[in-house]
Structures are given as structure tokens and as C-alpha cells.
């Protein structure tokens, strides 16, 4: 039985919904905890997998300035205003990292480049962690969402596939 953490950053709730769906799929393979990035503590010993997700901002991981900008444009409160995946990853101890998988949420527009999932994977790989799956993107309609139809089912399926890696 595996022990997995899903750590996410979310602006408008879409990435949180994907994180919860991924966790639901992962539960087929063991114990799963879901943590909003600002509440995620140090990774516990014995963790088998960490799944990290966040929204794509300015072609990659969010920064304090892009989170602030999202807050000024939002029609509702921003969920992960104080800290993002970028800062959380910078605070990790690379010597104790489990295998990882990364995902992001992105606006459903074919010509928009960049991926927070790929940037997070690159940072984890540089720290010496082992990639369990290729980075995955889940699509939202417009900046605030909602998720494109079928994306939560796809996220659960991706989580199920990770449970058997």
C-alpha cells in the first residue's frame, strides 16, 4: 500500500478540483492526503509519491506578482494567495524526495505556450527526484474557469494510472 501526498496551488478553485479528483483516483492504490500548498508541511518520511499541481501563470509557475495580478482580476477570492508551488519547491530538502508527478491547469487555447507542470517537473528533476509520469495538463475555459467538460473524469483516470506506477 502506497502513501501519497497531492500538493496543489489554486487561484479560482479549478486546480483544487483537479487535485481532489486525482487523489480520488490515487486512493485505489493506497493512502492519499491532499494539501493546499500553504498548508503543506515538510514531506513525511516514507512517502512513496508526491503529486504537485498548480495553475499556469505567465508560461510557468506562479510568482507573487502573478498571484497578486490574479487577485485583482478575480470575481471571487483567490485560494492560494500567500504562497505558490514555486516557493514550496524551493523549500524542499532534495535528499528526501519521493517519486513525483506534476500537473497544471491551463486555459483551453491551443496557441498559449508554457506549462506549470513542466516547470515543476524540471525543478524536481534537478533536485534528484524520480519522475513517475509525464507532466499532465487539465483545461479550463477562460482565466477563472470552469474546467472543460470531462476534465475531472480525466483527472481521476490519471490518478488511477499513478496508483499503479
TrEMBL record:
InterPro entries: Flavodoxin/NO_synth, Flavodoxin_CS, Flavoprotein-like_sf. PROSITE patterns: FLAVODOXIN, FLAVODOXIN_LIKE. One of its GO terms (molecular function) is FMN binding. Residues 4-163 form the Flavodoxin-like domain. SUPFAM superfamilies: Flavoproteins. This is Flavodoxin. The lineage of its organism: Bacteria, Bacillati, Actinomycetota, Actinomycetes, Micrococcales.
Amino acid at each position: 500500500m502506497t502513501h501519497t501526498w497531492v500538493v496543489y496551488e489554486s487561484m479560482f478553485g479549478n486546480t483544487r478540483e483537479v487535485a481532489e479528483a486525482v487523489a480520488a483516483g490515487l486512493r485505489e492504490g493506497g493512502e492519499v492526503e491532499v494539501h493546499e500548498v500553504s498548508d503543506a508541511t515538510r514531506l513525511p518520511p516514507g512517502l512513496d509519491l508526491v503529486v504537485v499541481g498548480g495553475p499556469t501563470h505567465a508560461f510557468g509557475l506562479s510568482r507573487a506578482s502573478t498571484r497578486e495580478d490574479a487577485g485583482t482580476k478575480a470575481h471571487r477570492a483567490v485560494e492560494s494567495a500567500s504562497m505558490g508551488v514555486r516557493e514550496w519547491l524551493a523549500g524542499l530538502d532534495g535528499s528526501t524526495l519521493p517519486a513525483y508527478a506534476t500537473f497544471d491547469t491551463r486555459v483551453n487555447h491551443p496557441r498559449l505556450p508554457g506549462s506549470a507542470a513542466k516547470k515543476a517537473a524540471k525543478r524536481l528533476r534537478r533536485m534528484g527526484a524520480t519522475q513517475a509520469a509525464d507532466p499532465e495538463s487539465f483545461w479550463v475555459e477562460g482565466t477563472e474557469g470552469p474546467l472543460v467538460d470531462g476534465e475531472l473524469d480525466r483527472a481521476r483516470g490519471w490518478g488511477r494510472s499513478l496508483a499503479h506506477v
